[in-house]
Every structure is written in C-alpha cells, then in structure tokens.
Specification:
Length: 295
C-alpha cells in the first residue's frame, strides 16, 4: 500500500511540474510593473554585513540610546550607502575582539609555560578595545571623504552637460534630466534618483538637489540648487554661471590633487632618510669594527 501511495504521489508531482512548465502561471501585476520600472537600487548587503548585524544586534539598541553613531557619521554612512546598525555592530565586534585578543595570547603563553601578567593583558585589552571601537569611524570618514571627492568630480561633468543642453535650447528641468540620464556612476545615480523623486512628488528639481546636498553634506549641490532656483523662478541667465561653477570645481580638484601629492612627498622624506641612514651604517660598520679591534 505504501509503495503505491508513493508512486502515485510521485506521478502526480511530476505531472504538475510538467503542466507548470508547459503553462507557467501569469506573474502578478506588481511584478510586471517592477520589471517595467525597477525601484532604485538598495544598498548592497554582503554576507559579512549580515553576519556582523546578527552577532552585534543585542548591543545596537544600547548604543542607539547613547546617541551613537552621531549625526556626522550617519551622514557619512548615507554617502557610502551603509546602514547605521551594521556600523554599530562592527564597532562592538571589533571592540570585543580587541578586548579578548590579549587574553587569548595570555592563555597561549600560560600553556607554553610563560605569561605576560594580568595587568599587562588587562591594559592591552582596554587599549585594543578602544582602538577597535574607533577604527570603523575613521574608516567611514576616510571613505566618505573620497566618495565626496568623486561626487564633486562627477558634478563638474554634470554641470558641463547641463550647460551644453541649455545652449541647445532646452529648458532648465529638461536639461537637468537629460544630463543625469547620460552620465553613469554612483553620483549620477543619486542625482537621477533625486530628480525622479522630484517628478513623482511634483516638486522643483532644484529643491530635490538642495535636499540631496544637505543629506550628503556637499555644499556644491546646494549652491547649484540656489543658482537653478534663480533661473527657474526669476529667469536669471544660468549658462555662464554653470560653466563658471564647473571650472571652479575642476580647479578645486586640481588644487586638492597637488596638495595630496605634496603631502605624500613629505611623508616619504622620513622613510628615505631612515633608508639612507641604514645604508650608511651597513657600509661604515666593517670599518668602525676594524678600527675598534685595532685598539
């Protein structure tokens, strides 16, 4: 009886799969609309981020109650497209790892017949825990600064495209939308999202750009929005202003690049001096040793 039931169930399941393959079910209306107009890309969540959130989740509400991560770090996280909870969980796990690492080394030394001392392990654990707690903030600030620099570089290209489109006779809103459609990359993607949201909410595009500049802490976007608002509401001449802003952005980027190159050159002075000192020591050591042995 049981083999017959299993055979019948398997035959029914196979026929159902065959029928589903021949005549697949129609997708829902929401799925069709999502295919025609896909939603904006959400922040990419990796397996590492999911693991960090899962293990650091119990402590995240406590840090939230203490006011962490702070307004500046939250703005930087928004620039990078990361979640604040993932960032706080990473801080907790790194701090815990730094706190336990000296004790693990202490246990290994004890197993081999030696020890660092309880005070040394405790002090090292506290120092490493503090460093691990602050390290994600420093990393986020550095990466956000680079992302803002890349955004300003893309913004200068965007202004050039808007200026060319305006010179061709297009209106301000049409020029903004066309220029955002042409470009690629994260900066153009955020600009397209802001302009698309402005169309859906029936607001002006310069208001959306101003809001985006405030969210990402990019003052150049707020200045661009102010210039566009004058052109859209009072009919001010905007083409020369956009060209000047694009040129100013490129000049600022060139100045920053020269400053970074000079800073890198200055940082290389100490390693080169130490290398030269070591080379001199390597050459002079035999002669000095021979002179000392002669006495």
């Amino acid at each position: 009886m049981i083999p017959a039931l299993l055979l019948g169930a398997g035959t029914g399941g196979g026929l159902w799969l065959l029928l589903t393959w021949v005549r697949p079910p129609r997708p829902a209306l929401g799925e069709r609309l999502a295919q025609l107009a896909p939603p904006p890309a959400a922040p990419i969540t990796t397996t590492r981020d999911a693991w960090v959130r899962r293990w650091g989740r119990p402590v995240v509400p406590v840090l939230r109650a203490l006011g962490l991560p702070g307004a500046a770090i939250e703005t930087d996280l928004q620039v990078l497209g990361r979640g604040a909870d993932t960032h706080l969980a990473a801080k907790v796990l790194l701090a815990l790892s730094g706190l336990l690492a000296p004790w693990l080394l202490h246990a290994l030394l004890v197993a081999f017949g030696s020890a660092l001392g309880t005070e040394v392990s405790l002090l090292a654990g506290v120092i490493f825990a503090a460093l691990g707690f602050l390290l994600p903030d420093l990393d986020v600030r550095a990466k956000a600064a680079r992302r803002r620099r890349d955004f300003r570089a893309a913004l200068s290209a965007f202004l050039d495209l808007v200026w060319i489109t305006l010179a061709g006779g297009a209106g301000v809103e049409a020029a903004l939308i066309d220029a955002a459609t042409v470009g690629h990359g994260p900066a153009f993607h955020k600009i397209r999202q802001a302009l698309h949201a402005a169309q859906l909410t029936r607001t002006t595009p310069w208001a959306a750009l101003r809001r985006l500049g405030e969210e990402l802490d990019i003052t150049e976007l707020a200045e661009l929005a102010a210039s566009l608002s004058l052109a859209g509401t009072e009919g001010a001449r905007i083409r020369l202003s956009l060209a000047a802003k694009a040129q100013a952005l490129r000049t600022h980027q060139l100045t920053d690049a020269e400053a970074e190159a000079q800073a890198a050159t200055e940082r290389m002075a100490l390693p080169v001096a130490l290398l030269f000192l070591g080379f001199l020591t390597f050459i002079a050591y035999p002669a000095v040793l021979q002179v000392l042995n002669g006495f």
